[in-house]
Design a protein that fits this description.
The chain folds into 2 domains: 105 residues, Roll (Urease, subunit C, domain 1); 325 residues, Metal-dependent hydrolases (TIM Barrel). Helix 3 links the parallel strand 6 and strand 7. By secondary structure, it is an alpha/beta fold. The protein has 14 helices and 16 strands. The strands form 4 sheets. Strands 5, 6, 7, 8 and 9 form a 5-stranded parallel beta sheet that branches. Strands 4-14-15-16 form a 4-stranded antiparallel beta sheet. The N and C termini lie far apart (50 Å). Helix content is 38%, strand content 19%.
Length: 458
């Protein structure tokens, strides 16, 4: 048993004082008791908040940061960005993928993420042929997560076509392609590896344009034959061109088609879901699925803005992902989410709730709950039976010093000048950062720089 005492801690019901936290050897919280004298229990350096699950990550894209910020067409868009991404992905080696992911996961920990859902679609060698070990790149990501010490939900991606009408894949997609049988074999291989590491295994049908209906049905059924509670993530309705193409193919919008043709429920995460009409918001929320919102990437790619008040009004669950990792900062994603809603509706404090008037408190609690659901992990916050995944704010940080605990969290999200106001991050009861820094920071950063240099100058 290990213990900490927090003068203030953000529990699922709200802020509490003098909270005793205890966890067992499995990293599960066994005691979360407010109004408890500290005694001889070690004390935290500031308020304790739940760790945020990052529900959408393409790890290799971290090494692309800054490389697509130029106009390469008369009008740049997601689709022109995707061409550059394919060119970058075509060059990556397993060693480079592992180095990039290890650094990224360390960045995530230093930025307040305690687990990650890795939407993994880079499966094969550069010419599209399988590696001798078909799971080589999946194993590289598992090793990276283990080295960093972050919780992992591995989501191998099923990718088969380049359009809604079963258009054959392009040369740029050759590293992604798998048959449904091949995917199910990969899942069988990965399940014991994930179990041994304490990771979770799920499936990511890439999108409706990349997975034909029969394959979608068979793959999801095959996954749930392996693990009935396994998470399913899918890109959906990210771009208006995607919506138009789906309408031309089926006569339905993407989210409506998915709800009519797939067993969407609380195991599913709808990534982006940016472009929905009211009936889709209502039906998708009622299904129990989580909306996976990625504010910095959606801004970077020009996707558009999700209507969060409409989704929350329908009772929808949601979480946060850093996706292409133009930004790796949990607090900044929450800030961007709120600011996008302010710009959209020309109001302030849009995402405060009836239970919590502080936007940072309301959004963090909801993002933690939705992110945990999407990850398939017991990471829903500071409660008995959940993972001991939490962050300690630095009460002496210039932006936070002298404030009450709820205001410290607000200052961390909205007023820390994007510098980290985190003192420590714990995952499964293990301290992963001290004074805002991971012990492998320097070594992992050097390996990342070497890999990126090879890719950009080789």
């Amino acid at each position: 048993m290990t213990s900490l005492h927090a003068k203030n801690a953000l529990l699922p019901t709200g802020w509490a004082s003098n909270v005793l936290l205890q966890w067992n050897a499995k990293g599960e919280l066994t005691t979360v008791t407010p109004d408890t004298p500290p005694g001889n229990t070690p004390k935290t350096a500031g308020p304790v908040t739940p760790g945020l699950p990052n529900l959408h990550s393409h790890a290799f894209q971290r090494a692309m940061g800054g490389l697509t910020e130029f106009r390469g067409a008369t009008q740049d868009s997601f689709w022109s960005w995707r061409t550059l991404m394919y060119q970058f992905a075509a060059r990556l080696s397993p060693e480079q993928v592992e180095a990039i992911a290890t650094w990224l996961y360390i960045e995530m920990l230093e930025a307040g993420y305690t687990s990650v859902c890795e939407f993994h679609y880079l499966h094969h060698s550069t010419d599209g042929t399988p590696y001798a070990d078909d799971a080589e790149l999946s194993k590289a990501l598992l090793r990276a997560a283990h080295t960093a010490g972050i919780g992992m939900t591995l989501l191998p991606v099923l990718y088969q076509t380049s359009g809604f009408d079963s258009t054959p894949p392009t040369a740029g997609q050759r590293r992604f392609i798998r048959s449904t049988d091949s995917m199910l074999c990969l899942l069988d291989t990965l399940k014991p590896l994930c179990d041994a590491q304490g990771a979770r295994l799920g499936l990511a049908p890439h999108s409706l344009r990349a997975v034909p209906p029969d394959s979608l049905r068979e793959a999801v059924a095959g996954l749930h034959a392996i693990d009935a509670s396994a998470p399913v993530h899918i890109h959906i309705a990210e771009q208006t061109a995607e919506v138009d193409a789906c309408l031309a193919w089926s006569g339905q919008r993407p989210v409506a088609w998915l709800l009519d043709h797939a067993p969407v429920d609380a195991r599913w995460c709808l990534i982006h879901a940016t472009h929905m009409v009211d009936t889709e918001y209502q039906r998708a929320a009622a299904s129990g699925a989580v909306a996976g919102i990625c504010p910095s990437t959606e801004a970077n790619l020009g996707d558009g803005l999700f209507d969060m008040p409409r989704w929350r009004g329908a009772g929808g669950a949601w979480g946060i992902g850093s996706d292409s990792h133009a930004c790796v900062n949990a607090a900044e994603e929450l800030m961007l989410l709120e600011y996008g809603q302010r710009l959209q509706f020309r109001q302030r404090n849009v995402l405060a709730s009836t239970d919590h008037s502080q936007v940072a408190t309301a959004t963090l609690l909801q993002a933690v709950a939705g992110g945990a659901q999407a990850s398939g992990r017991a990471a829903k916050g500071l409660a008995v039976g959940q993972r001991a995944d939490f962050c300690v704010l630095d009460a002496q940080h210039l932006a936070l010093a002298g404030l009450a605990a709820p205001d410290m969290l607000s200052a961390h999200v909205f007023a820390s000048h994007r510098t980290s106001a985190l003192d420590a991050v714990w995952v499964g009861g293990q301290q992963r950062t001290r004074q805002g820094r991971h012990p492998l920071h320097d070594a992992a950063a050097a390996a990342f720089i070497q890999a990126r240099t090879q890719l950009t100058q080789g």
